[in-house]
């Protein structure tokens, strides 16, 4: 939004001595000393934590207003008094006005906001350069030390040179974990990175960086384009975390459920993201889609059962599978069959395993991913609240239900249902579920397994999304993903190498498995 309060709130002189030392993204709150989500006041340059930490940045604004009210200054004096209402996120460099209660896209006549933004970016880059220099010196000094220390430092350097983190824009870890996971699914990611760029802006907004806002009226936005640009920014060796603020702005525009800065469900976001990418690709980009699909060997047809809402796109070509739903009336034996396309499967964690929270607990057997898949596909008798309308009996009858997988997707996305509603709140099932890193065999869940080849049902793990914490509206999301035969742990802006043991011990929330056959033969 265009903020009218900048002239009275942005009155800073760029004096480096007034800033804290070190990286701005790691500055500490002046009250609680937390270094999470630091915001700098553009009136006095004091640093405080954001509203989702301890809220001292907002309290700083409120305290300055209360002080003015108690002194009962006249209206003219109050207008001339600095307001302390505008602050800047030291990580994403977005600007926020507490009086407008919204993000700001304009600047002062002197361009003071942009000057502060550039100064913070310069300080961040200097801190990163110093950190790289220290690591280089450590590597050189350890040349005669043990190989373990040497490899450890080398790993840090290798990580920094190839993997790029994503800045947290305010409880956006749910989005970052999904984006990092999708960026490591090659046949999906490569398609978007090879799409031609789309120029959406003209006139006054041409060439200007757009910051996300709730109230901006621009309708010429493209989720596909911003998603493409985000994927292109990852894995380019940048030392600085990428800020997905332009993508987040588009998410706010077209997905109202995700407006604001409260924690969201990563699985729900993934489904909305894939659905909207699919719908947009079906529309304006249909010619590009079909051309690229053909070149990449992913053939589609209007009658393809995996198609959702019409024409196939890269979304359904990669993630699309088909379920057969069989319902049998227990009174007359009438059988009903229905084919349902899916982009992911949501699996219950069987109730007998729900008290086993870690792999090493001795109270019973370990829950495995196969247990969850069997629970999903096993014959189930529907209870009295789900009576089946039998067309032969002409009334609702007791029945059984069973799922078969009629067609497997190239990328099998499995969602473990860790959150469930009780009478008053949504609880988390914190059970550890053991899952294979390689060779997940899906043959026994197929409707016609005899028609499949020896390796066409085998899947290897590509990425895992993990939820840390106790509830869906709180906690934190991270992701593990495999890239060029190495595992990485993505924790917002921080990316580190991970070993397979760490991945295997994770309490998975979403698992992405890539068909072994498609890894070898699908290319773009």
UniProtKB/TrEMBL annotation:
Q: Which residues cross the membrane?
A: none
What is the primary gene name for this protein?
USP3
Q: Where is the USP domain?
A: 164-516
Please name the InterPro entries in this protein's record: Papain-like_cys_pep_sf, Peptidase_C19_UCH, Ub_carboxyl-term_hydrolase, USP, USP_CS, Znf_RING/FYVE/PHD, Znf_UBP
Query: From which lineage does this chain's organism come?
Result: Eukaryota, Metazoa, Chordata, Craniata, Vertebrata
Keyword Zinc assigned to the entry: answer is yes
Answer whether the UniProt record assigns the keyword Translocase to this protein: no
> Per its UniProt record, what PROSITE patterns does this chain match?
USP_1, USP_2, USP_3, ZF_UBP
Q: Which organism is it from?
A: Scleropages formosus
Q: Which Pfam families does this UniProt record tie to the protein?
A: UCH (PF00443), zf-UBP (PF02148)
Report what the protein is called: Ubiquitin carboxyl-terminal hydrolase
Q: Which molecular-function annotation in GO is an example for this chain?
A: zinc ion binding
């Amino acid at each position: 939004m265009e903020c009218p309060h900048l002239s009275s709130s942005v009155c800073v002189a760029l004096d480096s001595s007034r800033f804290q030392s070190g990286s701005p993204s790691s500055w500490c709150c002046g009250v609680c000393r937390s270094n999470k989500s630091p915001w700098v006041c553009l009136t006095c340059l004091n640093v405080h934590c954001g509203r989702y930490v301890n809220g001292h940045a907002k309290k700083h604004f409120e305290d300055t207003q209360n002080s003015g009210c108690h002194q009962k200054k006249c209206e003219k004096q109050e207008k001339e008094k600095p307001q302390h209402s505008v602050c800047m996120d030291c990580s994403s460099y977005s600007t926020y006005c507490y009086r407008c209660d919204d993000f700001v896209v304009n600047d002062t006549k002197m361009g003071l906001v942009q000057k502060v933004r550039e100064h913070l970016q310069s300080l961040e880059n200097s801190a990163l350069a110093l950190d790289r220099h220290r690591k280089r010196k450590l590597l050189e000094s350890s040349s005669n030390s043990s190989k373990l220390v040497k490899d450890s430092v080398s790993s840090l350097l290798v990580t920094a040179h190839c993997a790029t983190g994503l800045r947290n824009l305010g409880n956006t870890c749910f989005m970052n974990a999904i984006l990092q996971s999708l960026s490591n699914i090659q046949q999906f990611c490569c398609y978007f990175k090879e799409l031609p760029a789309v120029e959406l802006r003209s006139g006054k907004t041409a060439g200007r960086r757009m910051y996300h806002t709730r109230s901006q009226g621009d309708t010429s936005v493209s989720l596909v384009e911003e998603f493409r640009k985000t994927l292109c920014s990852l894995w380019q060796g940048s030392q600085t975390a990428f800020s997905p603020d332009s993508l987040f702005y588009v998410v706010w525009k077209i997905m109202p459920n995700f407006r604001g800065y409260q924690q969201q469900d990563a699985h729900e976001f993934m489904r909305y993201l894939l659905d909207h990418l699919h719908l947009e690709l079906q529309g304006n980009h249909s010619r590009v889609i079909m051309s690229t699909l053909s070149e990449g060997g992913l053939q589609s047809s209007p009658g393809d059962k995996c198609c959702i809402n019409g024409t196939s796109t890269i979304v359904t070509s990669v993630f699309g599978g088909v379920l057969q739903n069989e319902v049998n009336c227990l009174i007359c034996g009438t059988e009903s069959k229905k084919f349902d396309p899916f982009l992911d499967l949501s699996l219950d964690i069987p109730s007998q395993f729900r008290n086993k929270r870690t792999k090493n607990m001795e109270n019973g057997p370990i829950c495995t991913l196969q247990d969850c898949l069997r629970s999903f596909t096993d014959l189930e008798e529907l209870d009295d609240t789900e009576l089946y309308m039998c067309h032969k009996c002409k009334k609702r009858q007791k029945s059984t239900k069973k799922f078969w997988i009629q067609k497997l997707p190239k990328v099998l996305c499995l969602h473990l249902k860790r959150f469930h509603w009780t009478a008053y709140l949504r609880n988390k099932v914190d059970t550890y579920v053991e899952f294979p890193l390689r060779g997940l065999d899906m043959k026994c869940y197929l409707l016609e397994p005899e028609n499949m080849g020896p390796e066409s049902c085998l899947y290897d793990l590509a990425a895992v999304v993990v939820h840390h914490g106790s509830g869906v509206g709180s906690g934190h999301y991270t992701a593990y993903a495999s890239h060029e035969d190495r595992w990485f742990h993505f924790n917002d802006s921080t990316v580190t190498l991970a070993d397979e043991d760490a991945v295997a011990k994770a309490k998975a929330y979403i698992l992405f498995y890539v068909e072994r056959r498609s890894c070898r033969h699908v290319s773009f």
